[in-house]
Amino acid sequence: MLDPHRLRVFRAVVSSGSVQAAADNLGLTSSAVSQHLSALARETGLVLFQRQGRGIAATPAGLELAAQSEEAMSQWGRLDSVVSDLREGRSGRLTVGYFASAGSAWMPDLVKRLTSELPDLTVELILTETAGRSVTPDIDIVFDPSDGGGRRPRPGYRQVPLATDPFVAVVPRDHRLAPARTVRLADLRGETWVSNDIHGSQVHRMVLSACAAAGFTPRFTVQAQEHYSAIQFVAAGVGISVMPRLAARTLPPEVMRLRITDPTPVRDISALVRETGRPNPAAERLVQMLLELNTRPALRARATPDAQNAQEVQQTEQAAQGQDGQEG
User: What's the pTM value of the predicted model, to 2 decimals?
Assistant: First the structure.
């Protein structure tokens, strides 16, 4: 079995490019680092480095070992954290997966409340939109299109519906369509569009599908790939963007939200809760908080920083409740 500490030293040398730099970063002597590298080479039976000028460079085998060990070292680091929690008397750990807009809108206040109620709890948050995620979360906040084509049930999890999240158009406040507060999707046909998610992602596909249903293909001139930058491009007057309402809850004064109709893209947000065969009070309490948050609109508006945006959120919520289940 490979020694994790030697792997950590080896990866530091690969990343820093030299034995001396790795020694400085790790607080070791260069001699100690060299000894770890020699021992790892014997353990693996691989040539991990080769001479290059006055220094060394990783061989193809060394580079592959560094790449393949990343996930294992991440898991080892997580185990180190568990041991640290146990040593310091923290008795519980809750791992929560989330996507970006739910993370910024919901998780800070919820985690603060949860850890206030359960001070011995450690909450680990994982952005599920990143590739290569290997940790199995206790709760995973996910979304699917509201068209009956959602994901299959995940084995070992139960699904708790939380909310429906309609998409909105984010436009400059002086936009020609701004006074209407509501816009047909087809009315955005000739606009310059700013993408707010990675091309090919589920959100991007939902926008393209809705536009196809309205009879056009949007013309994207900026691939912002996330909603924070996309909103700033809109504020600068570059174009408009269509995104989930949850991603557009906090806006600068230069932009505003418009409700979309004919059709309204909508995503369903759920919490997937891992079934472990034993009680998990922290997980159940967080699910309860999520349900409370999504049945009390005032809590959703509370995080909006200025009164004007808060009023817009409230108006949108009231209008959504009056629409035949399309928005919620």
Answer: 0.68
